[in-house]
Amino acid sequence: MHWADISRRQAGVLSRSQLLAAGVGRVRIDELIRRGRLGATRWSAVYLAAGAPMTPEAVQWAVVLDTASVLSYVSAAQWWALPVGSDGRVHVTAPDRRRTRMPSGVRVHRVQLAASAVTERFGMPITTRTETLLDCVGWLPLREGSTLLDRSMQQRWLTARDVEQRLEEQPGRWGNRPLSTLLRQSGDGAHAESERRMIRILRAAGLTGWGVNVAVTVAGSRFVLDFAFVAARIAIEVDGWAFHSDVDRFRADRRKGNALVADGWTLLRFTWADLFDDSSRVVATIVALLAQAQG
């Protein structure tokens, strides 16, 4: 393949080793640089074809070529169109434990990658979608990681077995601790755990007058509320992980909610993330509504 075709496939970027492999000799490379057909970059032995802009994609290509690594973590997530925001750096994983230097704006993860964990996407050497998701869940702050894991399980991008295999096959790997925590939280007892968390929050706030799993009859139908301040007619529903939900449960929850509101109840819904990461806001919301009810 002609070197110009290679550069077009790689956002205008190519390496000296690629030029040599394409049959472009050292003298010819120097000539292309001298004539301005190839421009130097801040990465050694990586060039930018004349007229090609140094786009974010080109930067990622340059880093991968410069470090002889694969795109990974949040950078790979962008290529897989996953719901993970960028942190402004290019993340790559070295395919072995060698000490790869870390250029400015680059995060090199030194991990022994299995061949099955690496693929190509649009020509880019990159971690597989499964590997990328596991990396990101373990890398992100716990709240963001829990949201990503929940979404991944909903969409069947990941399974609990994928997480278990990472923990079993790569013990001691960085990121395993949050993965292990989130795996426990996402288990079948997730909803019960969210209820236990809510009880601790209410008790710590010194709130009284509430009940757990309160049965009420509204418009001839009997419903069980996760929590209720019956005197104030405030119902509280706490959610476990979304991937445990099914269509029937979703519809039943909506019927219950509509019936309660129509009967004059105030309905609050708190997510797993609310309970574990923003409990002060949960308390403030309840206290404000109780004050309104008493006023």
Could you characterize what this model shows?
This protein is α+β, with helices and mostly antiparallel strands and 295 residues long. It has 2 domains: 3-185, no CATH class; 190-294, VSR Endonuclease (Endonuclease, Chain A, 3-Layer(aba) Sandwich). Helices cover 47% and strands 19% of the residues. It has helices at residues 3-9, 16-21, 26-34, 56-67, 73-79, 129-139, 142-154, 160-169, 176-185, 190-204, 247-262, 272-277, 279-294, and strands spanning 13-15, 38-40, 46-49, 70-71, 90-94, 106-110, 118-121, 124-127, 211-218, 221-229, 234-238, 266-270. The strands form 4 sheets. A 4-stranded mixed beta sheet has the order 9-10-11-12, sandwiched between helices. Strand 9 and strand 10 form a beta hairpin. The model has no long low-confidence stretch (mean pLDDT 89).
Topology (elements, then pairings):
Blueprint: H1 3-9, E1 13-15, H2 16-21, H3 26-34, E2 38-40, E3 46-49, H4 56-67, E4 70-71, H5 73-79, E5 90-94, E6 106-110, E7 118-121, E8 124-127, H6 129-139, H7 142-154, H8 160-169, H9 176-185, H10 190-204, E9 211-218, E10 221-229, E11 234-238, H11 247-262, E12 266-270, H12 272-277, H13 279-294
Parallel strand pairs: 5-6, 11-12
Antiparallel strand pairs: 1-3, 2-3, 4-5, 7-8, 9-10, 10-11
Helix pairs in contact: 5-6, 6-7, 6-9, 8-9
Number of helices: 13
Q: Please state the oligomeric state of the protein chains shown.
A: single chain
Regions with pLDDT < 50 over 5+ consecutive residues?
Answer: none
How many domains make up the 3D coordinates?
A: 2
Strand content: 15-25%
Question: For the CA atoms, what is the radius of gyration?
Answer: 27 Å
* Residues in helices, as a percent range: 40-55%
Structural class label: alpha+beta
| CA distance, first residue to last residue | 78 Å
